[in-house]
Amino acid sequence: MKKIYRGFMPLGMVGALFYIAHTIIGQILWKAYNPITTDISSLTADGAPNRNILSIFCNVYSVCMILFLVALIKKAFDEYNLMCKIGYIVLMIMQLTSTFGYSLFPLSGDKTVMNFQNVMHITVTIIVVFTTITSSFLIAVGYLKQKNTECLGRICLIMAILITIFGATVPISMNLRMNILGLTERLEIYTIQIFMIVLSYNYTFIKKVN
Fold it and tell me: Is residue 159 helix, strand or coil?
């Protein structure tokens, strides 16, 4: 079992790279797509030109992240304090909500129409944002209180603050005359993926999985 959990740890980096790749490849394949003004969900919305291809990248991302978080939860329950345990459980809730929520409720063809599908997509997004912010701060504080993980805790705290700041810019950008929703969303989402890469790198190359 130790080898299995050790094998799951690099999947955080793999999953994050697959997610970032789907946004870059989607932008390249869809010539009319503007990453500054258009949200990421539009790449896999109903009727999007490359939805089937990009969904493969998203599915690989989801599987990798779920397995990665299983290993982190196991690690937290074996070695770390209650704050870390709760933080990783909340992070798993975020990932499961993202995986199944976005799969069940992709944006409809006309995202400006507030039909049931689009309302549920927005609801899933709200849950994902708040659980991500909550979990990142819980994990950061947990590491800061844990012996020998203070440095990782400081890094996680910086990431948590950045995720919160960039997350706040998303609704603000929606009300600006100059539409930069795609840019602000990418700042938030890419920061989250960097957060996952930091954790994955730490447990893959720095700290052994017991």
Answer: helix
- Sequential DSSP letters for 21-66: HHHHHHHHH-TT--TTTS-GGGGGSTT-TTHHHHHHHHHHHHHHHH
pLDDT tens, N- to C-terminus, the chain (210 residues)? 678 888 999 999 999 999 999 999 999 999 999 999 999 999 999 989 999 999 999 999 999 999 999 999 999 999 999 999 999 999 999 999 999 999 999 988 666 678 888 899 999 999 999 999 999 999 999 999 999 999 999 999 999 999 999 999 888 777 766 689 899 999 999 999 999 999 999 999 986 544
Q: Report the C-alpha gap between 119 and 169 in whole angstroms.
A: 20
- Determine contact, residues 144/157, Cβ cutoff 8 Å: yes
Half-sphere exposure of residue 153: CA atoms within 13 angstroms, side-chain side: 17
* Diameter over CA atoms, the chain: 54
Please tell me whether the overall predicted TM-score, pTM, comes out greater than 0.85 for this model: yes
In the chain the beta strands, taken as DSSP E runs, fall at: none
